[in-house]
Amino acid sequence: MTADWTDSAIETRAIHAGQDPDPTTGAVIPPIYQTSTYVQEAVGVHKGFEYSRTDNPTRTALHQMVASLEGGEWALAYASGLAATQNLTYLLEPGDHILLSDDAYGGTYRLIAKVISRYGVDFSLVDMTDLDAVRAGLRPETRLVWVETPTNPYLKIVDIRGVADLLQGHPAKLVVDNTFASPYLQQPLRLGADFVLHSTTKYLGGHSDVVGGVVVGNDRAAYDTLKFHQNAAGAVPGPFDCWLTLRGIKTLPVRMDRHSANARAVAEALREHDAVERVFYPGLTDHPGHDVAARQMRDFSGMVSFTVRGGFEAATAVAAGTRVFSLAESLGGVESLIEHPGQMTHLSVAGTGAEVEPGLIRLSVGLEHVDDLIADLHQALAAAVPALAAR
Hints:
Layout: H1 10-16, H2 57-70, E1 74-78, H3 81-89, E2 97-101, H4 106-115, E3 122-126, H5 131-137, E4 142-148, H6 160-166, E5 173-177, H7 182-185, E6 195-199, E7 213-217, H8 220-233, H9 239-249, H10 252-271, E8 276-280, H11 290-296, E9 303-308, H12 311-321, E10 326-327, E11 337-339, E12 360-364, H13 370-384
């Protein structure tokens, strides 16, 4: 029988939810069920598993774990965060409308603008930090309101409760991409969201060694529809991918505490540097979304963005000039990463009106010693913008 960890703290659930010892051997870590099919007791009679595209015990354990962390009744895992995003759009029909954050991940924008829109689904962009703008952007045919908070890459903060309250009486469902926060720092379902989305590639996996996605919710009818499409479309993670994600989740709380502490120190150091124009980090008290973030988040996560004096040339030189920060896309791993969104993660929004500034740099602040991280950024800034080296 699966143990009930509902009343336990999230740090405890991150280790134990969905992780009962193996009933056959007593193994503390649930095994990787590396199988494609299962013997049936009779025609159409089985023990809950018949084919691993439909279900797999390791994937079921991941579903139980993430649902527990997010405070949801169910979760469904996918082969990538974009596969999870696509599966949510299967709830739509031709003529429906998506209200999308104007600061959404470039891959999300690309999927909706270049793929989903081809099937008769319209979309529009809005600054989700402005509740009046959200209200004005709603249409009678709006069926999904798509929020990121913190957003990617400007780290805007959206009032999840405020948007949820605004949607009362409207048929639209509220989707919150919680990738940048993780369920340890923020639980959107408790704030009124209908669905929570994660790229589990990022903080949940936490080690840059697996790609995946997950959707969490409470609506049983929506679950039945999403589960049908998950099986029918087939973009499911393999059992080893699920096991790696489960292994990563066990250290999620301690990692997020360190990511947040390091990011705050990095943001404060960048704010004092003469070569830096602006720093975007919700943990800074002068960030316009700081108060909302403090209300709905446990801490402010490990993502920091900033603009460099000198624009594109200076920013790309800084991104290529670090030694501890690795120049790479993605985020949320134990190692620190640096990237130029305009030429990397958000190249797909170029020319759309939602493009990012040419001088913008995005950091995923890892778990290295913070003094090494700050020193690395200082030397890269000094090399790229020597006339404005920190005094």
